[in-house]
Predict the structure.
Amino acid sequence: MTKLDREIIVNEALDLLDELGLGAVSTRQLAKRLGVEQPSLYYHFRNKASLLQAMAEAAMVSHAAAPLPTPSDDWRDWLAENSRSFRRALLAHRDGARLHAGTAPQGANLSRALHKLKFLVSTGLPEHDARIAMLTTSHFTVGSVLEEQADVAEDQTEGPGLDRTEAFEAGLTLIIDGVARRADHLTNEPR
């Protein structure tokens, strides 16, 4: 038997998620799959919530590895690509958006989020607007993926002539254009 560690448990839990969905992920089911007694999981995770947090972090590894913005990046292009990367990570796992919903960045992920915020502020966006832009694009992305991953017919679209990716891109453009217009307005406002 392989020695049980956090990584093995999380990987098996993500496999369980992909096979059966978030509703079927339980410590009982996971222990059975791993061939261990349920209490042995609590040695590595104090409760199911801490396991789900670890799963959510692991599911975001591809997004967390995406390049951070640099001073030469255009904030609009970067914000759009950051949202696309986030969407791809959420879509990589069944119920990925449900798993991620309600989590907050911690540790290295929090440092990355703060770097992204500083980048947006350095481009001239007021800090409050930069925070709202990041929050809005994040919530929009999670919501879009929640709908996409919901139990709906595969051929269902997001309205006349739009598929889910097109709808996501259109909504993302509206958000970014709105942030840009607000930033332009604030820059051109008489003082």
Q: What stands out?
A: The mean pLDDT is 91. Residues 64 and 109 are 7 Å apart (CA to CA). The radius of gyration is 19 Å.
